Amino acid sequence: MKFIYKINTVLLITVLLALMTIIVACTQETSNEQSSSDNTMDDASKPFAGQEIDVLLQRSGDTEYLMDNTDEFTEETGIEVNYTPIAYEEIQERTLLSLSSNSGEFDVVNPFTEMIPALQHSGWIEDLNKIPEEYNVEPIDLDQFMQNYQDYYTFNGETQFVLFQPDTRVLYYNKTLLEEAGIDPPTTWEELEEAAEALTDPDEGVYGYATSTAQGPWTVLTWLPVLYSMGENVLGPDNLPMLDSEAALEATEFYTNMVHNYSPPQGVSMDVFEIEPLLRDGTIAMATIASIVNDPNIGMMSYPLYDESTDRTGSGTTGGWGFGIVKDSDVKGAAYEWLRWATSKETMKEAALAGRLSPGRMDIYEEPDFQEANPNWEAQMEALSTSKMYFPLPVEPEAQEILGTELSRIVTEETTPEEGLDTAQEEILELIKGGGYYSE
């Protein structure tokens, strides 16, 4: 009996060991299957993990935010991002040089709006509408962005850019100075000049008005709201320039008159960065400059109308920056994912709060924390969303240089308004003809 018992005991132990081996094997197999399933899920949620994209950025407070917070994007997607931040003065040359040489240096570019026509005609920028289906990614909701910009970013049915940071020229005014003088914000040219005259007191070091005239291109941008306030345009039908019109002459004479009579002595050569602090401290009462000022004591509005019966053409020119994907990029899916992150409501709002408070998405202007941070949000949204591109042709940079040079010469009295505008008319017409954009 003892022998049989020993045999049974041995058999029982053997069976138990066999069962344990089977259980362990099954457990390991299940674990491996689960691990494989988890890895598959990770791969599916990060289809571009391990890819790298190269982004050319115009350096600003908003883009600094993107660079500082990209780790969150990389952790979420597995996409590595390499940035090349460039100063505003260098972004055009660097972008065009890189794209024209087919260097493959960048996957995403960040042009300012005056560059857009040349890029649209170049064939260098991908149609963003094609990428979501081709790479199975969630599309960007373009309806949330300022449509005047997105319409401008669309060429031959292709959406080539997404708006990031819009910009235009507006009239700012020092609320304290106007209130103490009993003056309401002006709504017409006549009211603007009357207010500037009343507020100008050189003996007290106070001047009623100033605008950016230091550089040719910037002079164009602050002159355009004056022309637009008359309901006029730079180009007419068939891309014919209209700088020799009576309206252009009247706008130019009013523009120079405001600078000569109501600006500080250096008013004929000031830029926005000189004007802004003087507007804040009460040296200047009103100023037409870029929409970059954020101060509860500084009011904002579109440039006053020619008269009460006028319908303006636009508040000013559409300035600012957008993002586009280079057509020759071999990581377009990953680049689009970055673009969707950078222009998402959450990211763009935080970037705007860290930067110039000038987001390209309309839905951000509805956010209470953005409204609290930006006391001029309603006027800003109105001005930006009604701005208008004045020269939608690839030769825009050259045309702006011509017009800006002549306007600067007019302001500094090196030439007369008639002669300067006639010169700009002739040279820009030849430029347009030479590019094949107009024929008589």
Give a short synopsis of this structure:
The chain has helices spanning about 1-45, 60-70, 70-75, 90-100, 115-120, 130-135, 145-150, 175-180, 190-200, 215-230, 245-260, 270-280, 330-340, 345-355, 370-375, 375-385, 395-410, 415-435; strands at about 50-60, 80-85, 110, 155, 160, 160-165, 170-175, 205-210, 285-290, 300, 320-325.
3D architecture notes:
- There is one protein chain.
- By secondary structure, the chain is of the alpha+beta class.
- The chain folds into 2 domains: 52-166 and 318-385, D-Maltodextrin-Binding Protein, domain 2; 169-316 and 393-434, D-Maltodextrin-Binding Protein, domain 2 (3-Layer(aba) Sandwich).
- The protein has helices spanning 2-45, 61-68, 70-77, 88-100, 116-122, 131-135, 147-152, 175-180, 189-199, 216-228, 246-262, 272-281, 332-342, 345-354, 368-373, 377-385, 396-411, 417-434; strands at 52-58, 80-86, 108-109, 154-155, 158-159, 162-167, 169-174, 207-211, 284-290, 298-301, 319-325.
- A hairpin with a 2-residue loop joins strand 4 and strand 5 (158-159).
- Helix 10 crosses helix 17 (396-411) and helix 17 runs antiparallel to helix 18.
- It is globular and about 70 Å long.
- Residues 1-41 have low confidence and may be disordered.
